[in-house]
Specification:
The protein is built from three helices and three strands, in the order αβαββα. It has helices at residues 2-10, 21-32, 58-71; strands at residues 16-18, 36-39, 51-56. Strands 1-3-2 form a three-stranded antiparallel sheet.
């Protein structure tokens, strides 16, 4: 689930390079929801097979904080 991956990202040092296709797909969903700032490979890019997470957006941090509040 992309939200669980957002929590993983939040615990990582940024920028974060991601090379697993499944995680890149999760990043596409998170970016579409405006939760992360990320550089993604092009649709048919053979030279770039990785993504780079630059930051969690303010909206992403808000979602993480709300989830933390619910778990307390």
């Amino acid at each position: 689930m992309p939200f669980e991956y957002l929590r993983e990202i939040a615990q990582s040092q940024l920028p974060l390079t991601v090379d697993q296709e499944a995680n890149i797909d999760k990043l596409r969903v998170l970016r579409a929801a405006d939760l992360v700032s990320v550089m993604l490979p092009g649709a048919k890019s053979e030279t770039q097979t990785f993504a780079r997470v630059l930051a969690i957006t303010p909206k992403g941090r808000k979602v993480l904080a709300q989830e933390l509040d619910r778990s307390l």
